[in-house]
Structures are given as C-alpha cells and as structure tokens.
Amino acid sequence: MVIRISKLVLLLLIAINLTIVSLNNILDYDSNFEFVKNIMNMSTTFPDNNLMWRKIESPFLWNLFYIIIIICEIVIATCCYIGSFALYKNLKKSGIEFNNAKKFGIIGLVLSLSLYGLVFITIGGEWFLMWQSTKWNGEFSALKMFILSGIILLFMNQKDS
Q1: Is the confidence at residue 27, as pLDDT, over 90?
Q2: Residues 6+ apart with CB under 8 A from 89
C-alpha cells in the first residue's frame, strides 16, 4: 500500500507543480513571455553567431508559442490530476486494476517529458541556443522537471501486485 500511495503522491506533485507554473504564466503573462521572446529572438547568444538565421522576430509567433506552452502545462496537470484520482479510486483494488488506472498519469508524465525535453532543452536549448545565454537560460530548470518526471514515470511503470 505504501508503494501505491507513493505513486499517487508523486503524480500529484507533478500536477500541482504544473498547475502553479501554468497559473503563474497566465497571471503574470509578461514575465515569462519576455523569456520566450528573448530565447526565440536569440537576443543574448554569442556575438557573431553563425546560427542567427534561426531567430524568430515575430511577436505573433512569440505569443503563439508561449500560449502553446501554457496549454501544454494545463493539459499535463489535468492528465496528472485525472491519473491521481484514478490511482486513488483503485488503491485497494487488485494489481491489474491499479496498473490499468495508471494510464492518464503515464500520459501526463510522458507529456511532461516531451514539454521539458523537446520544447525547452532541445528546441530552446539547442535550436535557439539558449545555453549560450547567461540571462535567459532555462535549461537547468527544464532539466530538473525532465529528471523528476522521468524518475516518477519509471517508478509509476513498475507493476503493482
């Protein structure tokens, strides 16, 4: 029972974290919008960079990309809440039923890995060279969430009997 409750609590942790992150992005839109804008505009990459052709200077695209990120955060949180509720409802049921209840939680965790691994680390970090910026570098924060989501996904995927 302790293992099952642990899986529920850790999944809930991701849901709560992404709820706070998405609320922050909605309620204080401009703060992290500046981050997205500066990353996509490559404003603080190394001088004379040969990859500056990648930069995007469109305020419409900056906003669109940022809104997509916020929607992804909300979807991830929602999947993790649904998954947490499903785990809670199946805590005392058979291993098969509990394992089947993990579906939305696993989906949420994979989406979290995709958001932080693909969007922030790969696209932001490598395509837009965020790693070169001392001011607008979110790779470490993204890596923390990527690792946390990955560890929880590995734990969640262990079969319960």
Answers
A1: yes
A2: 101
